Hints:
This protein is an alpha/beta fold. The protein is 40% helix and 15% strand.
Amino acid sequence: MSTIALSVLDHASIAEGSTPGQALRDARELAQHAERFGYTRFWLSEHHNMQAIASAATSVSLGFIAEGTSSIRIGSGGIMLPNHSPLVIAEQFGTLESLYPGRIDLGLGRAPGTDPRTMAALRRDHSASSTFPSDVQELQAFFEPAEPGQPVRAVPGEGLRVPLWILGSSLFGAQLGAQLGLPYAFASHFAPDALYEALKAYRAGFRPSAQLEKPYVMAGVNAFVADTDEEARKLFTTMQQAFLGTLRGARGRLRPPVESLDTAWRPGEKERLDHMLRYSFVGSPETVREKLELFVADTGVDELMVSSMIFDQTARLRSFELMAEVAELQRPEQG
Length: 335
């Protein structure tokens, strides 16, 4: 397939028998690996009260990733803005941009990224998502040069114009991204239903802005690539187990792969999971390339953001290496 921009969405997943510190070190190793293989950006997600996710303090984690890399863009996929004040996020990402200039992205979502009890522990109101559009604009304003006599300023932050992205899985985010003239990332890797409708709405309603002249769309996909289809399918069972735990309200740390989940399903679970994970590309490079070409041609997306919950770090690095080969990214220099 022709070259397409390829990026990484990571959760700093904590595997059984591991620790949050090791998960973050593994994430940084993956970012270094992705940088060598020509990936465009490396994003971390914000989730709270999740036993398998070590990137809850997203801005802090991104600093650790950025310090270990030199050229790949680093960002949030995303900061859940209802959990924060726009000023604090402007200061945090202004700090990152000051330390790692020209490499920072700020992806924004309006979901809380957690459950109602944890929202209360975060001291956030359940209605905070209703102010998301105005909060995005307030945050955007903090990155502009300060006006004379401006009473509240983001320092660091003002004048840095950190690129904003709108993240979403519905028409709401697509319409907001289009209205504000911002790039849009759709969470098709776990919420695929509105993908085509959202892409259509975003492109049709897009208004050029100072940040972006024409629509730019990124779609999330899951990818499990190995030397054989059988090996890839086995790697995929780790993610299937994780989502199965979510369906059953029994989240835990990342579990090792198994040969088969045929005896694990309760009625309706496999069908539900297959639907949620519809845009998962699992197999050898040849198998994945064929399916990926169809997806890119069908959606017309500008960039793919790849997520992979793989238990073993060596297998995870290999999967992203093979995925780069599938997308025909620039190979690392030899020597």
